[in-house]
Amino acid sequence: MKLSILDQSPISDDQTPRDALEATMKLAQTAESLGYTRFWVAEHHGLPGLASSVPEVMLGYIGANTNEIRIGSGAVLLPYYKPYKVAETYNMLGTLYPGRVDIGVGRAPGGPAEVSEVLSDNFLQSVFRMPDLLKDLIRYIDDADEKIKAGPVPPVKPDIWMLGTSGKSAKAAAGNGLYYAFGQFMSDAEGKGVIDEYQKSFKPRYEGQEPYTIVTLSVICAEDTEAAARLANSYLVWQVKKDKEDEFEYLPSLEAAEAATLSPDEQKQMDDMKGQMIIGDPASVKQELEQIHEETEADEIMIVTITHSPEDKRESYRLIAEQFDLGKYDI
């Protein structure tokens, strides 16, 4: 089973934004050494606790400090941008790092409404134009426009992925001959049904192309279940508190999270979120990942792990890689 990583560059309460971005780059190096297939970075805007607002800059940095792991965006929030400029950017990355670049595309705002307004003259109007934006991007990446080339044209064109959390995104991916990544970690939809819909309606963009799917899951692994639960508690407290209290603007330490006072509503919210995550020791995490892989028939599993300590995050990925015998462990 292929495993990959999506990182959001969260900022812990003892880090600077630069620390968080450096941790993302180091995680990409770790992922490569462990045998993970690809490493994607997220795009978020106006969220103080997340440092990754410009994936293409991080991908240039990561690509220069790795050798073979695939790198990509998870996702380019296309309604904000001109497709031609996106094609130029990722073609340049593809020229620098041939055969390694993925363009993950999404349509979410990735931040608060106030930020969307300053990023785009009319974000909602651009969302409605998403089908046309997608077709334009595909045309430029495929070098299929008779008059315009998005140079530099790389020796191997980047793969285009549609990222989403519903049947609507699956239909868009299938209808345009794109690969599809389903964000189970932020969706209430049933993954198997969405992936089945994509696979059944897939229309190849070029001869010999087959549908390909990723399921993205939130996972925290440690040597034992108790330790994993303690790591997860920091993330969960942050999620329910970050918009309400200044002290939790950044990812709290394990001790700060344990000392937090939770309302009944916050506790319920945490319990609901925990039910959407995989938290446990290496053997139980492997079992759950294998079960989801079998149920959804996805080609690949992508993992999102958020912990206060970058070392704990890298260890979580190491333990999982070891369970699946992905490759080297010399980190």
From TrEMBL:
Matches recorded under Gene3D superfamilies: Luciferase-like domain
* Residue ranges of every copy of the Luciferase-like domain listed in the record: 1-294
UniProt-listed InterPro entries: Bact_Lucif_Oxidored, CmoO-like, Luciferase-like_dom, Luciferase-like_sf
Q: Name one GO molecular function term.
A: oxidoreductase activity, acting on paired donors, with incorporation or reduction of molecular oxygen
- Pfam families of this UniProt entry? Bac_luciferase (PF00296)
The record, for SUPFAM superfamilies, names: Bacterial luciferase-like
GO CC terms of this entry: cytosol
Q: Which family does it belong to?
A: To bacterial alkanal monooxygenase alpha and beta chains.
What this protein is called in its record is Luciferase
